[in-house]
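pinging the channel bc i need a second pair of eyes. not urgent but kinda urgent?? the chain im working w is below, pasted from the shared doc
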Amino acid sequence: MSTSVWIVIAIVIVLDLLFMPVVVRLMVAQAWNPIAEAHPRAAPAPDALTRRRQGISVGLVNLGMCFTISVDEHALHLVPNALGRLLGLRPASVPWDAIEAKKRGRFFSRVRIAGRDLSAPRWCLDLAFVDEGGS
């Protein structure tokens, strides 16, 4: 192959490496920011159940292993870990009365928060389903 072909290939690769992180951050911000803006972080109760490296999905954006999730009687606390912060995620504490229960699954459940559909591990969303006859 000629030198000009290699130059074009190099330019495409460099542009891709520069462009893709920007696209990913914009997609994550579009999906997550309405939740974080509507529900700023609050400190979880000392007896809150906490698990690290938990994954959630917001709409079509999968944020696997990006959060430390804490649950107390007042709110669902979602704090991004280092990977999440790199993606531009901000912490949020969502009061239970601001969470609309949608579907309780065997391993993951779906709720609606700030106009966004959110899927998360069932253990952390069980309190959202208490009014629907769950425990």
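so Residues 3-38 form the longest helix (36 residues). and The chain has a mean pLDDT of 93. — does that match what u expected or am i reading it wrong
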